[in-house]
Amino acid sequence: MKKIQAEKQRLRIKAQNNRDKMPAKTRRNLSQKICRLAKQLIDTHQPNSILLYLHMRSEVETSYLLESQLSSDRLVGLPRVEGQNLKIYQIQNPDIQFQSHKWGMKEPNPDQCTSLDSNFLDMILVPGFVFDKFGYRLGYGGGFYDRLLPNCPRALLVGLAFSVQIVDLLPSEDWDYPVDFILTENGVISCFK
User: What secondary structure, in 3-state letters, does the chain show?
Assistant: First the structure.
């Protein structure tokens, strides 16, 4: 168990370094390519409801995608850390004021949004440090998505990552939950089990 945790931490650090080394302009351009692919996937699958996330630090930038989805007819949700879990809030207004979490991510203000039941999400875009070709992911280590995803049985799970974040195989544990697709600047990786 300790060996797996140590390997996961090593992979997180390596992925963070790879992302951080990328010039901001390159990261922005690659993020736009990834978000265009995400929009195509969304247009193909036509989900009634979708969970996005607000990027932080050197993650794939998701602002463009949020803007495009807010102008659609679907329910758009964003996660908020509450205790040990993610609570989903519906975003309807692009001018909403976000709050900063102590870890640096922006979150919806619950006073300006209504909560959404995660059971009814049709598609979830998932962040991560590292993904493998089978859809397993390494997040920041808090287990928030690992606790959320099993409660979303009907959702199509889509990871967003730069190609430098993809590895052949990750050490996985019983509670790790794989995504169905990973979108990178190089295209779509199908990970169906």
Answer: CHHHHHHHHHHHHHHHHHHHHCCHHHHHHHHHHHHHHHHHHHHHHCCCEEECCCCCCCCCCCHHHHHHHHCCCCEEEEEEEECCEEEEEECCCCCCCEEECCCCCEEECCCCCEEECHHHCCEEEECCCEEECCCCEECCCCCHHHHHHHHCCCCEEEEECCHHHEECCCCCCCCCCCCCEEEECCEEEECCC
pLDDT digits (tens, 9 = 90+) for 54-87: 888 888 999 889 888 988 889 999 999 888 889 9
pTM: 0.91
Q: How many residues are there in the chain?
A: 193
Pick 2-190's CATH classification: 3.40.50.10420, 1.10.287.70, 3.40.50.300, 3.90.550.10: 3.40.50.10420
